[in-house]
């Protein structure tokens, strides 16, 4: 399967490209920058309803670019299957010394693809 994604703004750009018609099997977004830190009223969600492929959001519980409570309704805008992989205690850089964060996201994407 063809899986694409990116971290932070790279993930946002990849998701916008998929929303505009890039064909692939799944999308993996690491630390999606839902809004600028401290500015939840500036949500970056306008393109999400146009994503039609299974999408995995890997997000830290301490990410200042969006809390998990803010991320969940944004993820629900995507009409395709979605999953949120929570990384407890991680900030925006997902610096985890105990977990293989990319493997968690790819495993989730492959599960969604069946």
Automatic annotation (TrEMBL):
Residues 1-98 form the KANL3/Tex30 alpha/beta hydrolase-like domain. SUPFAM superfamilies: alpha/beta-Hydrolases. Pfam families: Abhydrolase_11. This is KANL3/Tex30 alpha/beta hydrolase-like domain-containing protein. It comes from Mycolicibacterium vaccae ATCC 25954.
């Amino acid at each position: 399967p063809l899986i694409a994604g990116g971290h932070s703004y790279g993930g946002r750009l990849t998701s916008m490209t998929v929303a505009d018609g890039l064909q692939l099997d799944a999308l993996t977004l690491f630390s999606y920058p839902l809004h600028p830190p401290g500015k939840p009223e500036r949500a970056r969600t306008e393109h999400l309803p146009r994503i039609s492929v299974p999408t995995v959001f890997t997000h830290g519980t301490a990410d200042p670019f969006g809390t998990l409570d803010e991320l969940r309704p944004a993820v629900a805008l995507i009409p395709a299957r979605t999953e949120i992989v929570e990384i407890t205690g991680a900030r925006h850089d997902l610096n985890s010394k105990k977990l293989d964060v990319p493997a968690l996201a790819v495993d989730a994407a492959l599960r969604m693809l069946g």
